[in-house]
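Give me structure tokens for this 256-residue protein.
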Amino acid sequence: MWIRTTGFISVRQMYIKLHLDSGPRQTSSSDIHGLCADIQKIYDELRRLTPPDQETRRKVDLCVEISRFIVERGSSRIKGQSVEEEQDWPDAGSLFQSTVVSKSHSSTSKKSTAHSSRSSVKHQEAAAEAAASQAVLIVLQEQEREQQEIDRLEVEVRRKAAEQGKLVRKLRLEREAEELKLRMQRESDEAKMKAQQEEEYAALQSALDERKRKLLHLEKVKDLKAAQARMQVYRGGASLLGALGELKFVAPPQSD
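Here you go.
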């Protein structure tokens, strides 16, 4: 801000010097061009820091116009052109309203400009702080919304996990119950089949034992009949053939 104010004052001083003095100018065009370039450079740096207001832009444009006019006026004076042939100075307007040749007014203007500069800086700092606070508030609100959404999703995840756990346990119990039912049915079928096989085996074994007892009884009957036949022959009461004809078959006793 001080550099910008200094640039404006330098242009005003050149304006006053050329406007009041009608003689030849010793100021070179290169110096004026350099000053104008400095003002443009300062203005560009200011624009990168913060957008300049309309008044600042107007003053910079007017400084460039005055600088161009000073170069042309100086060139015409050096060439010896008369004052009557020169063009009138452009209307500087409010750019030079606060400028007086006296040093006291220049000092007052500098102080006023410095105070205005400090006020502008404080205003910009306050505005920047307010903007930063607003930006932080927006981010905090967004964070709060995100946290609320995270909390809601966590509750939903826990609910879904609980439901899934219940479903898994239910399916496991149903599977275990079905497996138990099938195992019990299989064991029952196996028991029935085993009992049937044992019953059939017992029946076959009983029939086999009965046949064996009958065979043993026949063996005893055979021996008995043979003994009876021999006894009858020994007694001589009948011939051998008659004795054989009188023999009767004796059935073995039936088992319970």
